[in-house]
Amino acid sequence: MEYRSISANELAGACSDSGNERAWSEFVRRFQRPIALVVLRTARGWGACSTLMVDDLVQETFLRLCAENCKLLKSFVSREPDSIVGYLKVIAANVTHDHFRSEKSGKRGGHLRRVESDRDDTEYLFASPDQADAAEKAVQMEEIDQALRSFVPDQLTERDRTIFWLYYQQGFSARDISAIASVGLTVKGVESSIHRSTRQVREALRPASGEYPAMPKGISTAATILKEEE
Question: Regarding the domain delimited by 1-106, which CATH topology (the fold level of the hierarchy) does it fall under?
């Protein structure tokens, strides 16, 4: 079989079913860059970035995909053409978050703080972090997450909270999220979850004046929706 000519979803299936070396070689060739960009973006959000660290986390992502006889690839449910790409981005982001959470928990008074940015992937390679801006964003996003948590498990669930952050913080589409088997929702179901979570957060953060405070750039889309959905 000529693996270069098959779709992304078919290629993932070939890797999970057969473990074919040629299939995996094409899989790495095709997806190494998008995985690396997600690792880079996510690591940047933790205030850390180095070529060696990115390489290590890309490798860790591939190892996680291979673990337990390709369990993660086998659990993938294909609902849209090439939806495996969004699924791989979620896994790469999770691998990176896990790395920094583990590192931070292992250090008393660790200096790493979770932040976000709306810079594009090319700018991430060269930009230097603005620590004051990063700290402000982290505080604002913590307020939003606390608002989400306050509604779990009453009006919202942990799944709703996860979907909210995948959509607004990581930039995944409703279709990408619906392709994740553990989410267990259709595109419409994901859209309903996003709308429900957004409404609850908007109400929780509404100040007495009725005017919303400035939101961090990393969730500028969320800020826009929070205002426009009134």
Answer: Rna Polymerase Sigma Factor; Chain: A (1.10.1740)
